[in-house]
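Q: I have two molecules that I believe assemble together. Could you output structure tokens for the complex as a whole instead of separate predictions?
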Amino acid sequence: MRILCCVKRVPAPGAKINVTDDGQAVDASHLGFATSPHEECGVEEAVQLTERHGGEVTVLTLGPPEAAEQLRYAASVGAHHGVLVATDGSAWDPQRTAVALTDAIRRLEADDGPFDLLVFGNESADSGGFQVGVRVAYALGRPIVNGIKGIEVDADAGDGVVRARREIDGGFEVYELPMPAAVGVKEGINLPRYPTMRGRLASKKLEIAEQASDAEPGGQSLVRLHRPRETVTETVILGNSPEAASAVVDVLEELGVV
Amino acid sequence: MLLVVLEHDRGAMDEAAREALTFGRKLAAQMGEPLHAALIGADDAELVAEAGTFGAEVVYTVIHDVLSDFGPEAWGEAAAEMIRQLNPGAVLAGGSERGNEIMAQVAARLDLPMVANCLEIDLDSGAGEWAITRQQWGGSLLEDARLVSERPLLTSGLHTLAAEQAEAAVEPVAQAMEVDLDPSLARTVVKDRVVLEAGVTLSTAPVVIGGGRGVGSPEAFAPLEELAAMLGGRVGCSRAVTNNGWRPHSDQVGQTGTRITPEIYIASGISGAIQHWVGAKASKHILAINIDPEANMVVKADWAVIADLHEVIPAITEEIKRRRA
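A: Yes, here they are, computed for all two components at once.
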């Protein structure tokens, strides 16, 4: 299988997020960077699929030159190729990003043949536009379903079928996408592995192919980022020992949930 | 008109659709336009009437073979075709997973910008320009954005406002539309569904008992399970817990997990990292159990018990048993 996985470099999730004085970006001076969580799982899934079915994983990112780190990380956990569409570091809007990725995929496919599967994250952890994967898949004529937390490939059915699971309340839905196909995956589809020493060494040798993009800005542009107003909560301390259980149950009774 | 695309699952309206109607009603009033709604793959009188209670004056319905169940491409093309025929001034859906997905499909098909998870929208200044405040990082950061578009495609931030019916319900006009949909769109329609559990789920539970790293092991969740079962609730957990493989990811509360909306969330042994808070903050009340009085979850909670969850949770269970006896 030839699998292409799109990833985004984002400030490492979990920490408090501050904004630069001009409101134009996240203040990353005290933050590390990581692959957006859904996409980290996307890379893991792609690697697992090639381990089962053979083939190669190409990881594509659009971002500042430093996003090469995320490509190397992907290589350290088993991806085979890395492609960087370098920006000036400014945040590209979803339409522009989608056009640039679509162009990049077309070039890669023109050189080396079509990908059987395109893997996107359901949404990026930072800007959360919820649309780039869908736009790219549509432009390339590939079927896509988002919210995927399970993938099986049946290579023997016709031109190949991707059976994809999507979580719903109390169960899951099953989709069957004819290949070549695309999916938007979510964290939880797997537990990504950690890089091995051998993987780390291999990733240093990864040759990163660079592409340029002349995609035009779309209709949405950033004015400024700001932190939401913090609501100050007066926390009532019910106790400092298990004896507080009585006060807790009083609260539960008051709310009518006991 | 402002057109709200209604999310429903086999005829059951999604809460996100009600939120979108509520958001849309205010936006439509700002725009001085009527509120209309689009119902895809259903024409139930009940759904139409419910849209009316939120102020939708006209509900357009479309029924087609490829809309027999949810399918993002078929729903997206159906909505896009309705928009081509109706020429609405703006289009809105709920900011749920499906709502955002449908709108992305519409945006791709109409080649228009789409702005997801909006909180506030300021009117068109006359030149097709809109000022929007939207969520980044699941709502822990806000973005003021400028949108240049003759037809804004928007979704409203999930659970950022409470669904509210209109003061005066209207009896909506149901209007069936004909749309031409290619049979090949069936390629992404749901093929099968598997129900793993009936009853309350994490996203609908009235009580959620959350456990974090402080719980310590998969086995140590048993007392949380017991308390949740006793209250007709569900156990949730933090990202640290799923990353350790202690609980399935479907139990995760957070930006990359489930957004919960219980009457009360009892967060035990959870420090309250931003990404967890994003999934928990729509809880109506929060009670934190933590040995650290400075923990973010404690500071943001309505009530807190500063003690070891391994002692407090069983004590709560015993107290409930005692009072019920």
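A: One point stands out. DSSP finds six helices and 13 strands in chain A.
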